[in-house]
Write a structure and sequence with these properties.
This protein is mainly α. The protein is 79% helix and 0% strand. It contains 14 helices and no strands. α2 packs parallel to α8, α5 runs antiparallel to α6 and α5 packs antiparallel against α7. It is globular. The protein starts with a helix and ends with a helix.
Length: 303
């Protein structure tokens, strides 16, 4: 009986303080992302695409990614209900390799198709997995934390690798050109797999009350309906949705087209990589002190 009581006390302690740490997964995923990252616009330019074609390629990927992110999120939830939280990690890593393979497909000529058609098709396929992987890792991180305000402490490691790989890729691209990205991307995906294996199994926690109330086992369609109803249930939520859309437009311009502007200023790949380091210098204190900032100002105040 004493052993049972001790085991129960240990389980309670694990639930309270034994958070599932995703910081090294963030380190791996953002290093993997930066193997292409903001350099993709220069990759497309070096492949012979015009500025208008580069914009069309990015736009095509952005159209399909929200739908696939939602669908893969629902799939991960359904698999987690049957096979446990580790199923989300399997879907997450599958998205990483889906995007990696589709990125590599840009190396080949498809039956005499133009480079623009190849890049456009590969971008659409790649963006079916890349944004979903980030969203799934965010969901895994938040579900594994007893205090959600500590999310920034985990995400901070992604900022580290984003800066490190930005500078490293700038130097590699200066030395060997854009094709080095096709070697770095699979290598970082393999490293992420090692980090995933080392992270262990996430803890099984009870379902969130809001999720249980919204779903009730009725399937993906009811979940989508509840999400739409949630987004439109008040003026504050509609305003937040529009705010997120406008913020996404600005971030897309910076993430996808900023390096083309640097190219017009005759900046090298390495200088472009250093610019990533400068931006991350402002992210690190925000993530590092995110819990304290959220405790003081709240989520709405920080936004």
């Amino acid at each position: 009986q004493g052993e049972v009581v001790a085991a129960d006390a240990g389980d309670a302690m694990n639930v309270a303080v034994g958070d599932y740490q995703t910081r090294w997964l963030y380190f791996g995923i953002y290093g993997w992302l930066q193997c292409s990252g903001r350099f993709m616009s220069l990759y497309y330019k070096d492949a012979g695409l015009t500025d208008a074609e580069v914009g069309a390629v990015f736009a095509a990927g952005s159209v399909t990614s929200p739908f696939m992110t939602a669908a893969l999120g629902v799939l991960a939830d359904r698999l987690a209900e049957r096979h446990g939280p580790v199923a989300r990690l399997v879907v997450f890593y599958g998205c990483v390799w889906w995007s990696t393979v589709s990125f590599t497909m840009q190396l080949f000529d498809w039956f005499g198709a133009s480079r623009f058609a190849v890049m456009l098709t590969c971008r659409v396929i790649m963006d079916m997995g890349r944004p979903a992987a980030i969203s799934l890792l965010d969901a895994i991180a938040i579900a594994g934390l007893s205090d959600r305000y500590r999310y920034g402490e985990e995400r901070l490691y992604g900022a580290y690798s984003w800066a490190i790989m930005g500078v490293a890729m700038g130097g590699l691209l200066n030395a060997w050109g854009p094709r080095v990205m096709h070697a770095c991307k699979p290598a970082m995906a393999l490293l992420l797999g090692v980090l995933l294996w080392r992270s262990g199994r996430p803890p099984r926690r009870g379902p969130r009350p809001c999720v249980a109330a919204a779903d009730g086992g009725a399937g993906a369609q009811s979940t989508v309906r509840e999400l739409l109803r949630c987004y439109t249930s008040s003026c504050a939520k509609i305003s937040f949705f529009l705010y997120a859309v406008s913020l996404g437009i600005g971030m897309t311009i910076v993430e996808n087209l900023l390096f083309i502007y640097f190219r017009h200023l005759h900046a090298s790949y390495f200088v472009c990589g250093l610019s990533v380091l400068v931006t991350v210098m402002f992210e690190i204190p925000l993530f590092g002190y995110s819990k304290r900032l959220l405790d003081i100002f709240g989520a709405r105040g920080c936004l």
